[in-house]
Amino acid sequence: MAAQKEPALSVDPEMAVFLPNGGKSEHMLVNISEKRLAVKVRCSDNSLFRVNPVYMFIEPGSCSNLVITRLPGPPKSDKLVFHYFSCESNDSEPKEVFKINSQRSPEMLKLPINIISAEDVPKVKLTKQ
After folding, report:
1. Which of these, 32, 29, 35, 2, lies nearest to 14 by C-alpha position?
2. Using an 8 Å Cβ cutoff, are 11 and 58 in contact?
3. Which residue from 65, 59, 54 is spatially nearest to 25, judged by alpha carbons?
4. What are the φ/ψ torsions at residue 5 (nearest 5 degrees)?
5. Cβ-based neighbours of 41, under 8 Å, separated by 6 or more
6. Domains parsed from the chain with CATH numbers
7. Residue 97 burial (CB < 10 Å; 0-12/13-18/19+)?
């Protein structure tokens, strides 16, 4: 049995959590490889979710911020999938890397999305200072 290859991309936090009325979740994508990565973010429901940026380059050992916005809607099972390819330093547009490699399967990393009810949100006690 072949050893599973370590992914070149990591995401922190490893899950996005939203209320049914929507909100934002910020994540950091980290390139833990020694090669430059072109990344494309795909979502299971583009009518409920917006991501920024959709395409990006991440240099070796570097990170990039990602903001996920969920619009109000019913709770359901969703996910984001990060597709990525190793690329060259002279590649200038991440979208073009995906067009050039359209016949190849990209590496993938999944980010689960969890919708919680307001009752599941921890209560924060405010104190006067």
Report:
1. 29
2. no
3. 65
4. -70, 135
5. 51, 53, 54, 55, 66, 80, 81, 82, 83
6. 9-120 (2.60.40.10)
7. buried
Cβ contact 117:20 at 8 Å: yes
Distance CA 67, CA 50 (A): 8
Order of all β-strands in the sheet with 9-12:
9-12, 23-31, 63-70, 49-52
47-101 tens-digit pLDDT:
999 999 999 999 999 999 999 999 999 888 899 999 999 999 999 999 999 999 9
**Cβ-proximal residues to 79 (8 Å cutoff; 6+ apart), any chain:** 43, 44, 110, 111, 112, 113
Full-model pTM = 0.86
